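Apologies for my clumsy wording, but could you write out the amino acids of a protein and the tokens describing how it folds?
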Amino acid sequence: MLSSEVIKKISAIHIRTNYLVNDILAGEYESAFRGRGMEFEEVREYTPGDDIRDIDWNVTARTGHPFVKVFHEERELTIMLMIDVSSSGQFGSVKELKNELSAEISAILAFSAIKNNDKVGLIIFSDRIEKFIPPKKGRSHVWRVIREIVQYRPLKRKTNISAALEYFNKVMKRKSVCFLLSDFQCSGYDQNLRISNKKHDVIAVTIRDPREIILPNIGFVELEDAETGESIIIDTYDKKLTDKFNYMAREREDLLKRKFRSMDIDSIDIVTDQPYVHPIMKFFRMREKRL
């Protein structure tokens, strides 16, 4: 039984995302993701009118009769949502926490996929796999996915992207489009990320809070690591300290972008105090232009 709070959150997400999917992003998703193209189906005997370029010369040589390859167009896509629910997502200095924004963006991607008759699946992870929903079609299935994302309460606090990608590679045998939503505040996942992107089409969706980018001058502040519970008190009036913090934040951001580029991984950068529809549309249009 869903609580009234969860129902309220789901209703709010539905109102916002329904408008975006049907009015703002209509057609953008379909143009960016067009299916896997032509796939081999069977070999049959040549009949007059067949394209000679489709002749299977190996089968023809073995049988002594001309045979042609038959292909069909594969339009259906499988969209996997991989959601990081570690404790670092339970942070927000503006109106929404990072994990709340992650749920809303997931809803947009899921509804866009279903509107295009694609399958949608879900992997929720922390430092372990917490939930797996196999990909299926249909609005009722998407609502199940959205409900799981909104109401889910993590069992663990830490993050292990590498383990999540390793699990994803094992359970998804056919190529899929994977949206990996995280703040990427962990390390050691490079190898599995590279492997995943070779087998699948991985898109990294980075969600950050403005206070993780720039530390304002507001006096003494106690900072707590959400995943370890360790805390420290700092003086934000100390310009050397804040300059160092801001410099290190820019370095982390640049390093992450270089990592994705080196692996040919597309990325979407979301900051919680800025409208997320613009970077999503920019990403869709970039994909369409590339196609």
